[in-house]
Amino acid sequence: MMKLSSRILLSSPHMGGAEQKYVQEAFDTNWIAPLGNNVNQFENQVKEFTGSKSACALSSGTAGIHIALDILGVGQGDIVFCSSLTFIASANPIVYLGAKPVFIDSDLESWNMSPVALERAFRAYEAKGNLPKAVVVVNLYGQSARMDKILEICNRYNVPVIEDAAESLGAKYKGKMSGTFGKFGVYSFNGNKIITTSGGGMIISDDEEKIQKALKKATQSRDQAIHYQHSEVGYNYRLSNISAGIGRGQMEVLDQRIDEKREIFNRYSDALKDINGIEMMPEMEDTYHNRWLSTMTVDPEMLGVTALEIVEYLGENNIEARPVWKPMHMQPVFEDCEYFSEETDNSKYLYENGICLPSDTKMTEEQQKFVIEKIKEVLN
Ligand SMILES: *Cc1c(COP(=O)(O)O)cnc(C)c1O
Question: Is the CB of 245 under 6 A from ligand 1?
């Protein structure tokens, strides 16, 4: 039992119980390597869960985005469109390949890539005769972006989509699993994600040939030969068979975790939704949010307190809360990159007024009541 005095976390690893059995299996068979039965079984589980035809387990989600961009031919001097409101791992691999990110705003219903801003960016780059090589679409906090509109636009310009589904495993858009809409989907199993392998990722696609390429890229692009032969440059990006053992156990409790995350969100929502000046992150119609993190926006004028002040007050009470991701177009490292917003800068608004609340599935109801109590306290 966690004590009320122990820190209440945003999202921490939550083991299901079977993980150690699969890790032991790796030890018993001496498959202590970045391949083995756990890796294969973990890939099979993700394929079955998402309905994707093929999958390749990797050492991180960042590696997945890097490999996806590489296989799509992104290189020196190319343009890649990318959601601005995200964690930097969505954009860093664009720079690894010598390409230039152009950032796209969010809409306020999904918090994800705005089709309006995306269309604007395409028109501007079409006029320059310099269409992007790829579009990285992020599904933030467990909600899918508007994939039908985004795909319609990208297909019209014949530009492939990479879905950064690092935060949205198990979320659905119009009945279909998040991550399965783009040419590639990428999941992350970092320690704070809805399930974890301590560190890890996976790239999925219905194009089995492309996933074969990803597997090759992830293993130093080794050709089929008994001697070590390489016809192109690759990476060392495969997932350890030990980590994959953790992943196997975690996949067994994924549905349960999503239910728990949604319950946590509903409890916040029930307690806070009637307060003028608080708005919970919407769940778009016809979508299923995995509620990886419970998030909300606050109106500082109505409430007399800013998002940052609320986060700080919670921190003083041993509660971990955070502002929403700082958009990429506001990051010093990307200050010379172009940005296309909607009429107003929505991602900036969400950053300045958004809060991620503790969404740890190990948090007790009592602890969550304490969080809610503290939020109400700081509003008065
Ligand atoms: C966590 C995360 C990643 C990166 O995943 P890693 O496994 O940590 O490399 C990428 N994009 C988003 C939106 C994330 O939240």
Answer: no
Ligand 1 mean position, distance from CA 99 (Å): 19
User: 188 CA distance to ligand 1 centroid (A)?
Assistant: 6
pTM, entire model: 0.97
- For domain 19-251, which CATH number applies: 3.90.70.10, 1.10.10.10, 3.60.15.10, 3.40.640.10? 3.40.640.10
Q: Which SS3 state, helix, strand or coil, does residue 161 take?
A: strand
3-state secondary structure of 320: coil
Residues 259-285: tens digit of each pLDDT: 999 999 999 999 998 999 999 999 999
Predicted pLDDT of residue 3: 52
Residue 141 φ then ψ, to 5°: 55, 15
Residue 79 host element (H or E)? strand 79-83
- The matching CATH number, chosen from 1.10.101.10, 2.20.25.10, 3.90.1150.10, 2.40.30.20, for 254-379 is 3.90.1150.10
